[in-house]
Design a protein that fits this description.
This protein is mostly helical. It is built from eight helices and no strands. The chain has one domain.
Amino acid sequence: MNQEILTPVLDWLDLIGIGIFALTGALVAAREQQTFVTMGFFALVTGVGGGTVRDLLIGAPVFWIGHPWVAAVCLGTALLTWFTPTRWWDGKLLDFADGLGLTAYAVIGAAKALSYGVPPIPAILMGVVTGTVGGIIRDMIAGRPSIIMRPELYVTAAALSATLAVVGEMIPLQRGWVWVVAVTAGYALRAAAIHWKLALPAYRDPLSATNSDS
């Protein structure tokens, strides 16, 4: 399979995801009143973290090293954040934007993994890794709880987008439409989770439940 899968559609999805994740990283540093250097570092690590881990796992060249725009988008996003009040990004607006980056990145990750000969199930997992690991790294460095530790639907939305991208490749369907549908479906699930606070059931220890009933 051709390894050059970044068509114009995926190129735009890629840069959108990078920019949104970079913004969330820069805002973490801004809210901690860090320097611009720290803000740029958080923007870069958050923007490229998931894709970097994916590329290392599938044996691909790390995508942003040879790309002329990725680092520029991250640092430009940090510069934008530096000159805007953090209150502009309060509320759910950033959550909805993050959801778009999450699902776009999940599709990109799954499609790229397939193009490198990764089987379908691991390719789906590579999509999830691409969409979530940057935020995990950001939260770990900042010493704050990660969103994946909450029951709210987040990883599930990434998994839905990645799964649809892989299934569409296997049928096969026209790639551009598959990717758009996959991003839209995952984003709709994530947006619904944000709006209605949808969550999967949390684990309950059966033994503890039995003891409490006795």
